[in-house]
Amino acid sequence: MTPRWPRRRRRTTDGTGVPSSEEHFLSAASVRVRAGGGGTGAGRDVSNNAFGPGSQVFDQRQYHLHPSGESSPVQWPLQIGRIPALASAFQPRAALRERIGATASSESLAALVLSGGGGVGKSQLASAYAMEAARDGTDLVLWVPASDVHQVIAAYAHAAALVVAPGTAGSHPEEDARVFLSWLATTSRSWLVVLDDVTDPAGMEEWWPPGQGSSGRTLATTRLYDARLTGAARRRIDVDVYTAQEAHDYLRGRLDGDGCGHLLDGAVDDLTRDLGCLPLALGHAAAYLINQGTPCAVYLDRFRDSGRRLDQLLPPEGDTEGYGRRVAAGLLLSLDAAQRSEPQGLAVPALDLVSVLDPAGHPHALWDTEEALVYLTHFREGAYRKRRWWQRAESPVPVTSEEAHAALRTLHRYGLITSDLRNEPRAVRCHALTQRAVRETRAEEYEIVVTIAAARGLLAAWSESDDVSPELGVVLRANTGALVDHTGARVWHPLSLPLLDRAGQSLIGFQHAAESIAYNEWLIVRNERHLDADHESTRDARDRLAFSYREMNRHQEAIPLMERNLAYTERELGWDCPETLKAAGLLALSLRMGGLHEDADPLEERVLAGIQHLSGTSDPHLRFARSLMADCRALAGLPEESVALGEEVVAEYERDLGRDDHSTVVTRASLAGYYERADRPEDAITTQKQVVDFHQRTSGPEHPATVSARADLADLFWGVGRTDEALLLQEEILAIREGAFGAEHPFTLEARFAYAESLGQSGRVDEAVVMLADVLDAQERVLGPEHMRTSNTRLTAHNLRLKAADLLGQSVNDEMTAAPDD
Fold first, then answer.
1. Model-level pTM?
2. Per-state percent for the chain, helix, strand, coil, to nearest 5
3. Which of 327, 479, 646, 783 has the fewest CB atoms within 10 Å distance of its CB?
4. What integer best gives the mean pLDDT of the chain?
5. Which of 354, 545, 334, 547 is nearest to 432 (CA)?
């Protein structure tokens, strides 16, 4: 039996079963009726007739104007449209207005377009200009809601009738709108047209008011960053959030004006910063403070509580300034349009990824990574085409890097993010409240996927060494911190965890010691909570923390960390495991550097015995353990033993990894140091030159690794009395460091210290003392007073001052001896 499917009954007006075209149009049309002179106006089902002199009917198809005989004179000045009221504590934004004024003074300007994201105060600014124009006696001020082109056309047609523009027929809005534009172009009357919230640049092309040669001005507002808005001599001004001072002044003015100034406290600046100085959010927050009688500090704690949603903290009833929408909805108003734009279906997943990163920005390079492209491919809207059960599933078409960057530009064009390559490595930015609105509206089941994609994308964008691009390292660490703040425990997923370790590795180095200590102490606590006290990531964090403690002369704090790691490997792996020997070597090094040589001796003997037992085994932990023993032997005052071990390590690295492997080159540089300690300067210089040649060949003469290797070579030149070569090399290094990193970067200070020390050794003691005083002052600020490098500079400066005093005393004695007797 053939089933009979129920059919949906269609509405009809003409008996055909299909709605008539007129009925369909009328159901969608927006109709505005204006009745004048006691008449009655009606639309829709009375065929849009108007009754009574002066009555008008407007809709999207046509409107009818019935003049009442002779037109009455226009009463100038004339204001048409409702200009929004200014905020209670409206900020004049002097710097922004100065920029607007400078642009508006251009003779060729056709229109000024205020462009910015949701809630930054574009309409408020335009309202201020409109009110000023009205107060100044401008003949016509026209305020037009411009989110729909039909609204613009209807407003122009209405204005044509009110200004009695010649040729106004009153039957077709588009014809009368064009009449109005012609009137604007030819009238001697002054005028200002404000087009608020332009959303369709293509549709607006023929409806922009005239520019050059007319007697008026056009001001538009929009969320869009679209080239079509700035064609035909229109100029765009980017409107951003309040400055910190403007945000502070707004809150103070708003609360003082309502008799609630007592709610302002020391947290007011932190609150404005957390709200991102966004006028929309500040307005809602101020209303919340007033309504609830809540001090800023209490509200700030609530705002930072991730369990509270924006609609609770910035509720709809807080819209006392007339923005007309909730904060979250206002911020994401254009997201649907962006999702429909090319490349279709990528705006939402891309913004989801942006929402868990640092609002201050991340590099464009993240969107070239395979991890980000795979994520976008998977979540592109409609990526998996619907199919019937007998059809083979089709894999989604991979998203290309070009499409990924196009998606960013789409989000930028709709005012949801800022994407500007000129701001690398913080090229992609998003307001913190926009990010929060996205996170709060995202389905919970997607949270872990977004977290993993962001973590793996950041990791893939991280270069092997932060020395090449220190600023990139700073930005990626900030994004790692933001990801943790926004996603919490989800970052400790096995696929995301490597990012946390990479952030810790990027802080290894004397210039980051204090920051490294803070980060790794924090990471160890979180790892123990989310993973395990002896998880590999936790043990690696202890190794890094111990290294940084040693850099800060905190050797006693490094020892317990190494003891804990050794206890685990000894218990779980035994002494026949290379990883145990590495852990024991790190503990022995900490003991040596802490001056506990008697405790280090038996431990080193056991490590050396283990290395001998595993001789012939190729393992990275074993190679590292042998390198550690070479360092320990040098610290123990046994330079020949350190040389022998160093030569074995280099030979092993060359055999297993090759002469040009990075690890081989590092061990060869260490061997040069062992040669120097063993009083074999020529061997040290020959070996260090090999290191310099490698870096110059592979990385170039100004690469940080090359410069560092040349600095070590200069020190070796001093050891053999090649003073001129050493000073020339150090001068070159100092110039490179200052040019690449600036005057107070730790690398630059290190180069300046080496140069000053060399000056002192060459007899130019006074110059050296002055330079070292500057270096010490900067190091205390940058590295901290307890840092190993700072302590070394302090000691060297002290010794040189003593030397200068001795030289001065000797000079005085010589003069007295040479003076003739009276």
1. 0.76
2. 60, 5, 35
3. 783
4. 85
5. 354
